[in-house]
Amino acid sequence: MSASAKNKLTVTAEPGKQEVFITREFDAPRELVYKAHIDPKLYVQWLGPHGYEMILEEFEPVNGGKYRYIHKDKDGNEYGFHGTFHEMSIDNMVQTFEFEGYPGHVSLDCMTLEELPDNRTRATIHSVFQSVADRDGMVQNGMEKGVREGYERLDEILAKL
Amino acid sequence: MARTPTTHDPFNAVAEPKRRQVLEALGMRELSVNDLVALLGWNQPSVSKHLGVLKQVGLVSERRVGRQRLYRVNGERLKPIYDWVAPFERYWSESFERLDKVLEQLKKEK
After folding, report:
1. Does the model's ipTM exceed the 0.85 cut?
2. How many domains are there within chain A?
3. pLDDT band at A145, cuts 50/70/90?
4. Whole-model pTM?
5. Chain A residues with CB inside 8 Å of B78's CB?
6. DSSP notation for B35-50
7. By residue range, what is the domain housing residue A145?
């Protein structure tokens, strides 16, 4: 079984609420998962959807530091994101997040890393948006348009409901 | 933005936790109102009320078998709700798939 099949991503966005929860497990100890979030050379290797170049323009993963990155698709379209790190530690990663295509709508993302047996880690991201409409806009657009998944995934939402 | 009436929009229909419980209880099977009353422990009028809304938005279908009415989840109507979250989910699942590879590499270097 591949790591992604075993370590399934869960997105919880209850209707009418301003928040989203994302959880995912990793086959690696907490220190390494944290390292992949604060080392710029590592960060650019994984953040963003497939097929996008990740350009890290600013990255100061310390308390009060700022960041800005661009996801660039193969047609040259650029999607910019920026924010500041309120707290950056292995116990708590708190940052603001703003999609430059939807300016003025800022979310607060808190990420925690929980140690699991067998050197595994569970990451939980809790994003709080300024309004239900902001959350729905962000979740619906993702950072990409027109993505369609097949009916085979329907079983999953049935299981989640 | 004006809200669409509950009875027209599956999103609003599932915004009510009790209606999500009804969908969850139905799952992939067909049940009667009495089955649902027994499963959920609510009174019959309350079960019927929520079933009525779910039926109106098309999230639940009804079928008569003899004197009984059986209800089931109409999966196709749930698809828009799934599609709504799919792009966001894809962003993170693809990022984390790559993070898995980065972590594998880091473990080897250790």
Report:
1. no
2. 1
3. very low
4. 0.70
5. 154, 157-158, 161
6. HHHHHH---HHHHHHH
7. 8-160
